[in-house]
Amino acid sequence: MTDDSATPDAAPYQQVTDPVRIRALAHPLRLQIFDILTERNEITATECAELLGESAASCSFHLRMLEKYGFAERAPARGREKPWRAAARSWDMRPEPGSIGSTRAFQELAVLGLDAEWERIRGYFANADQESDEWVQASTFTRSTFWATAEELAQLSRDLQEITERFAGRSADPSKRPEGARFARMVAVANPEPYSSPTARAAEEQR
């Protein structure tokens, strides 16, 4: 998971493999709040509640949990307001090599995150007729199949994580956004086909 976080003073990068931390993020509302933190410069519990339709008390609780596990931190106070910000600008969350507990925690978070992203994507394409042709043509849903070694797939994963670096800084600094720019998302998944799938079995038989 990498984000052009809007938090200019946060640490530039965090890699998370600790199963306790990963599992702490695997909560639907907490993950939504984490997404908001990585998309904005800072936010208060009240602003968070207004965006999500939740109570400020609930958002405050989950923000404190995100702070406890190192995903959020306090931003400088704005008068009486007490905003929060993401603890890093970019995140890489993957299981600890050889750790079953870390892998299972990663599974929970990955499935939850995928469900949330596909729901957003379905929402966009379901309403594509309400978009201008310019934006519809600019959007894409791309799938590819190929043969690769684990090392090659790992490099592809790193390439995908870095592909939106050209837009870095635009969340924090609106002056860097070209005229007509809209908030956009890219979801990229690179993974080997499960051995149990019919496609994989058929491919292996052709070897």
How would you portray this structure in words?
There is one protein chain. This protein is mainly alpha-helical. It is about 45% helix and about 5% strand. It contains 8 helices and 4 strands. α1 (about 20-25) runs parallel beside α5 (about 100-125), α2 (about 30-40) packs across α4 (about 55-70) and α3 (about 45-50) packs across α4 (about 55-70). The chain is globular and about 65 Å long. The relative contact order is 0.15. Residues about 1-10 have low confidence and may be disordered.
Strand content: 5-15%
Helix tally equals 8
Oligomer: single chain
Main β sheet profile: 2 strands, parallel
By CATH, the topology is: Arc Repressor Mutant, subunit A
Q: Tell me the span between the first and last alpha carbons.
A: 34 Å
Average pLDDT works out at: 88
CATH structural class: Mainly Alpha
Question: Which CATH architecture is right?
Answer: Orthogonal Bundle
The low-confidence parts are 1-8
Structural class: mainly alpha
Order of helices and strands: EHHHHEEEHHHH
Residues in helix, %: 40-55%
How many structurally independent domains? 1
Number of strands: 4
Radius of gyration in whole Å, from Cα?
A: 19 Å
Shape: globular
